[in-house]
Amino acid sequence: MKRVGIAILGLGVVGGGSYRILTDNRDFYRRTQDVDLCVESVLECDRERALALGVPEDCIASNIFEIVSDPDVSIVVECIGGIGAAREFALAALHAGKTVVTSNKELFCKFSHELEKEARRNNAGLYFEASCVGGVPIIRTLLDGVQSNRISAMMGIINGTTNYILTKMTQDGASYEDALREAQELGYAECDPSADVEGFDAAYKLSILSSLAFHTKVPFSKVFREGITGVSKEDIADGEALGYRLKLLAIGKQTPSGIEVRVHPTFVRKEHPLAAVNDSFNAVYLTGDSVGDVMLYGRGAGALPTGSAIVSDIIYAATHSEHKYSTFRNTANAEKDVKFVSDFLSAYYLRLTVQDKTGVLAKLSSVFGKCNVSIVEMIQKSAVGGKSTIVLITHETHELAVRSAVAKLESSEIAKVESVLRVAL
Ligand code: HSE
Predict the structure, then answer these.
(1) Which atom of ligand 1 is nearest to the CA of 306?
(2) Rounded-to-integer distance, Cα 309 and Cα 103, Å
(3) What is the CATH number of domain 345-424?
(4) Residue of 138, 140, 179 whose CA lies nearest to 283
(5) Which of 17, 211, 282, 359 could lock 307 by a disulfide, CB 3.0 to 4.6 Å apart?
């Protein structure tokens, strides 16, 4: 039976989970996959953490050079995170002809061209299923499940922390701060929670997924990004009353005018399957020209779900003689001839505060009309202290038209615009 030596760099949540899966299931993989996966070494500066996981003392390497020069190691798993040592060590491993498996979305998103060039040059593999949506096999699905299709759209909840926060705010009426604290205590959030709540984590993942879905490099810089820090309980409640649920959505579309990629809080109809994806669960909804709609659902974070994706990549690499690389032109600036849409079309939710007096609604309508913004529905709440709250949903409208209407309403003091959120109709 083929024996494959593995080294794991970093034994934090994901590296530790991968180590557990590999050691607990070694016999199972021997039986079912006909391969003996053996963890030869780990690189972890916290020795106690490695020993507590059961790593034998003599398997703890002192530096990356011990690993890349070890002829018994053929697969290196990068679970360090960030783009400093992780990039340097991954390149060193590829340079030595070792296959690299990584969970690092920022690394793959920003340096996929550099890593893949080095991998191809040394006939090494480069696998990154764990970088996007944890245990949900979305990358394998795009590469090996729906590759017969032209994908026209992708819509997903691809960050567990923000989904947990929005679920708590929706179901329990929790404040944003309390819900974030709980998500951190449960270990969902990144070390710096701004990566989650400002939408960076989801934007890295969307950049990778849309590059694979649309066969064109979609750089992180092209992803429109807005996080959930400005979301209020009032918006969530008003949306609920109108039949919508608020989710941080990552949306990718291939349109006749170009590729559209965006991450922002979005109201979805309560009947939409994504509205039922709660807590730290993730889901991706794809539309292909032959298959139609496909939805994948599961845990997008955590030691064992993300470890599951890592170990599945290891098994793929260990049992295939040919490596599989990107299905898009993965070179520096490959996107320079590609059109990206920034003035996208969406429906909008607006919450406004207005003076409760005659003629205000007529002035509002006039501004919206001049900016080509058409209203689908509107509610006016009972006035308090001479001021009234108006909540409205627009028809599909260009982003710039809505921004222009908002600027006009504020500059002419017709209304104070409290919130602008996008709606997926
Ligand atoms: N912090 C991420 C999330 C973990 O909440 O989804 C996986 O990227």
Answers:
(1) 7
(2) 8
(3) 3.30.70.260
(4) 138
(5) 17
pLDDT tens-digit profile of 304-330? 999 999 999 999 999 999 999 999 989
Q: Which residues contact 350 (CB under 8 A, 6 or more apart)?
A: 391, 392, 394, 402, 406, 417, 419, 420
Q: What is the pLDDT of residues 107-121, one digit of tens each?
A: 999 999 999 999 999
Q: What is the CATH number of domain 138-300?
A: 3.30.360.10
Q: What is the DSSP string of 298-342?
A: EE-SSHHHHHHHHHHHHHHHHH-SS----SS--STTGGGG--B-S
Q: Which two tokens stand for residue 38?
A: 């053996």
- Cβ neighbours, 10 Å, residue 221: 10
CB of 160 within 6 A of ligand 1: the answer is yes
**Which residues participate in catalysis according to the annotation?**
205
Query: Would you tell me how many other CB atoms lie within 10 Å of the CB of residue 214?
Result: 22
Q: Let me know: does 157 contact 249? Beta carbons within 8 Å.
A: yes
Using CA atoms, how far apart are residues 373 and 263, in angstroms rounded to an integer?
Answer: 22
**Residue 201 in contact with ligand 1 by CB distance below 6 A:** yes
Cα of 229 from ligand 1 centre, angstroms: 16
CATH for 2-131, options being 3.40.50.200, 3.40.50.720, 3.30.565.10, 3.40.250.10: 3.40.50.720
Entry pTM: 0.95
Residue showing tokens 């709250």: 389
CA Rg, the chain, in Å?
24
Q: Does ligand 1 lie within 6 Å of residue 189's CB atom?
A: yes
